[in-house]
Each structure stands twice: as structure tokens, then as C-alpha cells.
Amino acid sequence: MRTPIEIDASRLPPLGMPPERFLRDYWQKKPLLIRNAFPGFVPPIEPEDLAGLACEEAALSRIVVHDRKRDRWELRHGPFAEEAFPKMPRKDWTLLVQDVDKWDADVRALIAHFSFLPRWRIDDVMISFAAPGGSVGPHTDQYDVFLLQAQGQRRWQISTDPKAPQDFRDDAELKLLKRFTPTHEWVLAPGDMLYLPPGVPHHGEAVDACLTFSLGMRAPSVAELMVDLVEHLAASIPDEQRYADPDLAPATDPAEIDAASLARLDAALARLRTIDAGELRDWFGRFITTYRAAGDPSPPGRLPTAATVEKTLSAGGRLLRHPFARFAWARAGRGARLYAHGQDYPMGVAAARRLANAESLDGADLAALDADARAAVMALVRRGLYRPHRARADGPAR
């Protein structure tokens, strides 16, 4: 039985099917258009809010302008001046802002609908505003992406041809495909969503002024993984440990790299083969919680003491995780390791699971942790990854 490429999810949003079936039949295998993935969707952010965020120094933003007559593409990088937006043309341009989930809690809440995926695999929610005709051109992505139509309508074209050409134009700063021949075309309305696995050529163009939410995955290249792992291994080797040949015999040909030399080289690089599962786990946990980080939380100017934190929580306050902070956890023997923005902390399994998944902690949460986890929380507070928020007199913590 062939799997459909289009489905209506009204009865079972957001996928229209159990996650197990989606992962089995579609994930990293084939595209899927999901009508009514979020029925009645109302975007938690307006185009004016997105433009305001694009003016912030710390936000990562771009504008893509397409000159249709000359088929030229212009890429501009933010931050942008507020007065730049009223001067933009009426059509054929797009504003893109990455990591909006780090800036807006309501946008971040969308990620909970994708809890069938490992959280450490989810990168960010990028939001684009496009004027009528706005686009970033036909291209491919090297990661999985869910494209949720939030406002207005956008026409999407994709190619499922396994032999579709993948070479890029050499006259644009963007990586645009030289040739693009679509096999499928749809117009998405608010609440519709398009899932694309890596490497699928696609092209989206605004029918009218529209907002599109893009939930992208974290997918480091094998080259990036290898480089970082080798750097990790090299950091543990003293500079005095070098290629050596105390058994050197007289050379028969001084220009030859002989078998004995290669054997010594192999011995010198033995550290590459001695990494065990625990070391690999800890390296990867630290790596993936910092990979493509949106920002680096800074420590508080005045470091809070454990007594100060306990006082805040006992008065109804909370510890809020910094939106830039990335957490994950893994089992380690009978216990676990919490990985938090590039560092790791030993603790029990229940505590690691709780800390990795919770956006905030109250007094009861802290009291339920084991001693190692409570010590880790204080270390995370001092790093700025948790921030104490006092309770308001008339309501929850602020």
C-alpha cells in the first residue's frame, strides 16, 4: 500500500496519524502535506512584532529581495533600522528571523506539539514574513523541517524526483538551485503544515502577505562531529607526547615514508581508537547542547547564594530556565548525566529527566531532587542558565 503525500489532520492533529506511523513512513523518507495540522491556528506573533525583533542587535535576521525582471536576488543582514520597513516594496521580499522561540514564550510553546521527537534534535522556530510574491527561491535544506502556515497563504512547490539536479546558481549569495522542476504544488492556508525531509528541492512563494513558522532540526554534518571529537581528544594529550622513532634504522631511501614509519604513526594516533562509550556520550552531550547556539547566557552580576534561592522558592518564586539554555540527559551506569549548555553534571535518573524537561522549578521540584542534582541547579544558577523569579503579591512568580 502506497503512503499518501497529503493528509487531513483534523481528527488527529498535528500529524493526522500516530507518531509511530509518521516516523516509520515519512520521517527522513518522504514529504507530507498535512492539512489542518493546527485547526483554527492563530499566530502568537504579528508581522509588526517580527519586524521589531529584527531590529534587535542580538536577533539573527535577514531580508531577501527578488528582482523579478532581472531575476536577481539580494540578501540583507540585520539588525535593521525601524524606518527600513516602511520603505520596503509592496511585493517580492521576505523577512526571516531565526530562534524566535528563544524570544517569545508563546512561540516556544509550539515545540511541545513535537514531543515525539528528541528535544535535542529540535533547533529553533524560524518565522518569516513575506509580502505578496515574497520568496527565498528554490533550494534544498540539509535537515528536516516542518513548515507551518500561520497567516495568509503560501504556494509551495516540491520535487520528489530522486534524480532532481542539486547544483546551485553562481550569481546569488543564497544557495539557489539552477534548475527546479516541481512534481507537486499546493497552496497552504493557516493551520496547514508541510513536512520536508533533508534534500527535497522546494520553493515557497507568498500568495498574499503571510507568516510562515519553520521548525527546523539540528543536524550537524559528520565533518563537524569528527572535527569537534578530535579536538576533544586532542585536548587530553600533552604537547610533549609526539611522533617518535627511537627504534629508527638506517634509511634505505631517505625520501621514503616506509612501513615502519606508518606503524609508528598508527601508534601515535591510538587515542582515536580508545574512546569508550561513556566518553563518547559525554562529549556528544556537551557538543549537542551548544551546537548552533542562539546565544550564551551570561552569569548574573551578583551571584545568588543557596540560601537566597531557597528563600525565593519558599516564598512561591520559581527558577526559570534561560530561553537560550539547552538541556539533555543520558543514562550513565546506574545514574545519569545532565548536559546543560556544554557542561555535564552527574545525578540520579529521575532528577536528570526532571531538569532536562522542565522550563521552570518551584520549591517542591527542588526538594524532590537528589543532592547531586540540587548542587547542579546551584551551579546552573551561577552560570545564568536558571534565573530566580520572585512571586508577585497577587499571583505567580514574575
Mean pLDDT: 95
Strands of the widest sheet, in order across it, are: 1-2-10-7-12-6-5-3-4
User: What count of helical segments does DSSP give?
Assistant: 10
> C-alpha Rg, in Å?
25 Å
Task: State the end-to-end CA separation.
Answer: 54 Å
Helix content: 10-25%
Uncertain spans, ≥5 residues at pLDDT below 50? none
**Class derived from helix and strand content:** alpha+beta
Mind summarizing the main beta sheet? 9 strands, mixed
Counted beta strands: 18
Q: Name the assembly state.
A: single chain
What is the strand content? Answer: 15-25%
Helix/strand order, N-terminal first: EHEHEEEHEEEEEEEHHHHEEEEHEHHE
Shape: globular
Main features:
three-stranded antiparallel β-sheet, alpha+beta, single chain, 398 residues, nine-stranded mixed β-sheet, 23% helix
Draw up the topology in text:
Blueprint: E1 6-8, H1 19-25, E2 32-35, H2 47-54, E3 61-67, E4 72-77, E5 93-97, H3 105-108, E6 122-130, E7 145-151, E8 154-158, E9 184-188, E10 193-196, E11 202-206, E12 210-217, H4 222-234, H5 259-268, H6 277-288, H7 306-314, E13 318-321, E14 327-332, E15 335-340, E16 343-347, H8 349-357, E17 360-361, H9 363-367, H10 371-383, E18 386-389
Parallel strand pairs: 1-2
Antiparallel strand pairs: 2-10, 3-4, 3-5, 5-6, 6-12, 7-10, 7-12, 8-9, 8-11, 13-17, 13-18, 14-15, 15-16
